[in-house]
């Protein structure tokens, strides 16, 4: 069962999200927040698996709140008073805007996914399940704009990021490039002729070395450092937008 905290400052929109999500047998709404400060408090007390943020374009205050939700006590795995590991919630953002600097900032702060607010219902539920399991979600229509925004951002501190990239082994660079190209863990394992458990081990090592919390930040890092080029997008017959996986 995946528990969800809804963050939205519009009562009717919160009600609509709750009513729809409660029709899903594997999703449970544990609370609602109308402001980011309240969201931080509820995330701390309710411990949802996913915080669903639907409040428009994030500003600096909102970015700080996302950081606090995903990194409680400035430590993603800070222990509770009883000594058990405190696993922070995942954050999925619904936005009405194309990806821009604020969207990149939200990802840097620890968000695990971005969807446009006009996403189809099944896309939303699939995204919630994906991030709850530790995956990353980027709306296909946001990919191109996000890549452009990342390319603008990366100029100022590219040297520092490339220094972190230099700590990766050759195999880890291959895994990161495949991950950024949209390959699943199973596909990476098959492509590189390694075990799925080895892929997971490499991804864990990559996240540690580049200072990323989740896979979506690693994907952004791969674009920022130039490890992968912006994808040539094409449509699958079912309407899904896939990156070019050739090469």
Question: How is the largest sheet built, in terms of strand order?
Answer: 2-1-3-4-5-6
Within CATH, the superfamily of the largest domain carries the name Response regulator
Question: What level of helicity do the residues show?
Answer: 40-55%
**Spatial gap, N to C terminus:** 39 Å
Classification by helices and strands? alpha/beta
Number of domains: 2
The DSSP helix count reads: 11
**Overall geometry:** globular
What is the strand tally?
8
What percent strand? Answer: 5-15%
Describe the protein in words.
Keywords: DNA-binding, Phosphoprotein, Transcription, Transcription regulation. It holds the Pfam family Response_reg. The modification 4-aspartylphosphate is found at residue 54. This is Response regulator transcription factor. The chain folds into 2 domains: 2-148, Rossmann fold; 157-242, Response regulator (Rossmann fold), CATH 3.40.50. It is 49% helix and 13% strand. The protein has 11 helices and 8 strands. The strands form 2 sheets. The chain has a 6-stranded parallel sheet with strand order 2-1-3-4-5-6, with helices on both faces. Strands 7-8 form a two-stranded antiparallel ribbon. The longest helix is centred in the C-terminal third of the chain and has 15 residues, at 196-210. It is globular. The model is unreliable at 74-84 and 233-247 (pLDDT under 50).
